[in-house]
Write a structure and sequence with these properties.
14 helices; 12 strands
Length: 442
Amino acid sequence: MIRFILSDLRRLWAGSLVVVLLVALATALGVCVVLQERALRLGSARAADKFDLVIGAGGSETQLVLSSVFLQPSPLPLMPGEVLGKIAADPRVDWAAPIGFGDSFSGYPIVGTTATLANKLSGGFAEGKVFAREGDAVIGSAVRLSLGDEIKPMHGSAEEGGETHTELVYHVAGRLRPTGTAWDRAILVPIQAVWHIHGMEAHEHTEEGAGHEHAAASGTDPAEHGHEHEEAGDHHDGHENPDGHEHYGEADPDAALNENWTADTPGLPAILVKPKTIADAYKLRQDYRSGNTVAVFPGEVLTNLYAALGNAKQILVAVAAGAQTLVAASLVLVTVIHIGQRRRQIGALRAFGAPRGAIFGIVWLEFFFLVAVGIGLGFAFGYAAALTLSGMFSETSGIAMPVGFAGEDAGLAAALLAFAAILAALPAVLAYRQSPAQALRA
């Protein structure tokens, strides 16, 4: 029987190939959706695990996490700088690191932070060392620069028509180990350098100073703050440079770092906090969820985000299931026509003494084999597509996207094979019921 089936498949190889490809493509669509959604959840969850608690000004908790943990550019409101000094001195806090956004270089975000965060982020350095001067920078593992390279910060991004700062040029002092997070594509610099470049002096608490602080930390163009910019420019000797670029502030690349935070610290959009214990984490979140600040657990925010996006996954799965149903209906139609065309062959087999059960088995095995091969290829194609999409996403975001099968995928494969077994029974029943005499007269 097996030799007969293989001979039949070789003779009808073109039609068999079409059936296999149809099944494979329909299956690949569903598998890719499942694997990609799982990879996105696992990758983002692992990235958020690096940070226990994020504190920012009042506003959207989701946007705070997306900006501070995943480094997605977005303007954030600033909280008073005195909050940083208060958190850093809190006995429940192991360490606290401010972060400031707004600048970039060659498509990589520049993040102002502290040497503490740079040391803690990846558990060490692949090469070089942490920044020790205002003009030093530390790069993530995916940043395509070398030790000693120059980094000229640009306000905003090139796509937005950003302006390159002339006040300071950073030099790469170290490279972090891979973290599997968006920080692998980040350039870390001392936050005091970011403040100095943007004219954010520690003693400023005036309205024009706040305008500059918001621009530096949230990516807003300082030129939009017309009155504030002019007054702060006079205060910081903010005349145009000979090359025509606006002068924001003074920075000394050889200046020593000062990470002792006081009440006069400039405003900032977010603080990454490492509590000493789990109990301390919950107490700190409660303490800073009132007034002008908000404290969030990144993992908790992501869980809520996944719940909100759950309907999107269901829609994609429904689309994939619809495609598979259409393919199944097409296969049924093709096989019914195919059985009709093979009536003489079936009649001849019956005339030579082949029992009805053998005819049923030949047709069922042949069709089931084609569909099973298509399902197997579909899983392979879906896995390859998910790997490709995850690689593209990781390249742009820096977040590692682990693509892999889980135990529940075996259930999906079993369900598809069971459906294929039922589907293959339809043409087999048609062949089983054919009369040999009628088949030979056809």
